[in-house]
Amino acid sequence: MNYVVDKVNTIFRDKKAYFFIVLMMFCLGISFGLYTVKYMGESDKNDLMSYLNSFTTSIQGQPINYTQLLFEVIKKSLILFIPIIFLGMTFFGFPFILILDLIKGFTLGYTFSFISSAFNGKGLLFGIISILPQNIIYIPCFIALSVICLNMSAEKFKEKVFKSSKAKDVFLRDTLSRLIIIMILFLLGILIETYVSPSIIKFVANKFLI
């Protein structure tokens, strides 16, 4: 466990500038998501409210299909995870990785803001328990992955334009070990989102929202 913590700390310590840029884009995305809900039109808000109400009603007595949910969570995670790694392997991936950071922050801010406002005071609790458990792991992993892939893309750019690069074997070996650690932690987040969060959401929905 100490090895994992040391590796994560090294990522942030060695690449402070990348970490700052990623965090700024992520927070900017969250802000956009919050303000989008605030200034959403009434018709759009009512449509989403109807969907959210039907969702909370439907989960009241239905058993959770964990197998189907697991596949959905994995698919959702890979849709964002794989493009960032792919972009990190290209010399032009730098700005696109930052755009994905912005999108990730937007979806998180939008989801939390809408759920919180949908049920007034009760929505804050529902929003927290719906988003927080898995994102305690997802967000640090996502930020660390973005920092690593920004670094990879920057090195590719230097190699392409300035014909300069680090010792490739050491760089690739170190990067690969960090990516493996992030994927293991990401897997833990997937398991939490699949097997822990749904039960908590169902409990809160039954007790406070229905």
Structure description:
Pfam families: SpoIIM. The chain crosses the membrane at residues 17-37, 78-100, 107-129, 135-154, 175-196. Keywords: Membrane, Transmembrane, Transmembrane helix. This is Membrane protein, DUF95. This protein is mainly alpha-helical and 210 residues long. The chain has one domain. 88% of the residues lie in helices and 0% in strands. The protein has eight helices and no strands. Helix 6 packs antiparallel against helix 8. The longest helix has 42 residues, at 120-161. It is globular. The N and C termini lie far apart (41 Å). The mean pLDDT is 80.
Tag the structure with descriptive keywords.
210 residues, mainly alpha, 8 helices, globular, transmembrane helix, membrane, SpoIIM
